[in-house]
């Protein structure tokens, strides 16, 4: 789309917001109900588009793309009246007589830029929050999931207010043109590299941003863990979640050296039980999204420091964009595979001598989006919670905090800023306006000039 057309679309959307239409609760509820309707009628189309883009199994698509968006809408529909109501708070004694309240108001016209790896979820889920909060929206789905992007662009105007909610498809040129427009909020999901570009552009207009970024999410496994359960939960979080191409994917494992051999053996058994002797034939695993990412991942495995560290898997087939679930054992901490977000089916497993060593490794790196800990010991749990920082943490499982809508989901430091999900999505797109109201009937003169000597001593 040409820059001039993009500018015109943004101008129209701003006009819609100014009309006040998107602020009404009826409008918000109607849009949210229409999203539920769209999902009910087009579940198969969505599943098919996501499968075309990345071969995602239909169960995975339902669990991680369709169901969360539908339930986000249902939660917002149920709670909208509550969420939008003013909240009374006590005024300060010095301001009495007065009443104080906070009233959420929409930011205005918001831009949502989405990533490819959950192409339906990461487009629609933030949009639910933006609509619930009463904003007009422009959505830019990811060009790297073209089938899903096209489906969203086709369906949204059929179900939603086609003037106040717009889809702009495209890649870097279109996103660049969008970022040159004036926005009241930008919600970006993607890499930290592009997050920096988005934030720099937003700064020109002092536009607030939510940045949902990625990074290397570690797993710490201590010797008290039930290794069978732990490996199942890590494996489903890694390979069962878009084949490792998820922002909250377990990126590497730090396992107590006293049980590292057993852990690797248990993980091999788990992988066999999930995907059979030949995972290439399995219908239960997504493929690598495209040839660029395939080559990037092969590059990580072809690193001369890494080739000898493959403990399991390592097979690849360019024609099918297939890389087997791969375990690497004790790779150097300064290797490439331990320096960049893996975002694919490779899992380095590193032995550590103590929980302190694991904590030191985590803390020597950028703050992760997620941190996973497996332990039966409360003391270890409390220590890791107290001594590390991460966007979110799960103890004795992986990724499930993402689906827990009573928890805020977001990063910290390099893994992002701001959060969403559940009520936090509404808040991400609302300004909570502070309102202090005073009556005329009592007016204490001591606060007004001219200030007498008596007032100065007060
Ligand atoms: P990406 O940053 O390459 O692309 C994201 C979006 O930015 C796309 O819509 C793309 O068109 C746009 N974009 C790309 N290059 C741009 C540029 N130079 N200027 C302006 N816009 C540009 O990210 P991706 O590859 O789609 O997603 C993978 C990354 O996203 C990983 O780091 C992953 O961890 C992260 N991620 C985070 C979350 C989260 O919720 N925190 C969810 C999914 C993915």
Automatic annotation (TrEMBL):
Entry annotated with the keyword Phosphoprotein: no
Record field: catalytic activity: an aldehyde + NAD(+) + H2O = a carboxylate + NADH + 2 H(+)
Pfam families, per the entry: Aldedh
InterPro entries named among the record's database cross-references: Ald_DH/histidinol_DH (IPR016161), Ald_DH_C (IPR016163), Ald_DH_CS_GLU (IPR029510), Ald_DH_N (IPR016162), Aldehyde_DH_dom (IPR015590), Aldehyde_DH_NAD(P) (IPR012394)
PROSITE patterns linked: ALDEHYDE_DEHYDR_GLU
Listed name of the protein: Aldehyde dehydrogenase
PANTHER family per record: ALDEHYDE DEHYDROGENASE (PTHR43570), ALDEHYDE DEHYDROGENASE TYPE III, ISOFORM Q (PTHR43570:SF16)
Active site per database record: 212, 247
GO-annotated cellular components: cytoplasm
GO terms for biological process, alphabetical: aldehyde metabolic process
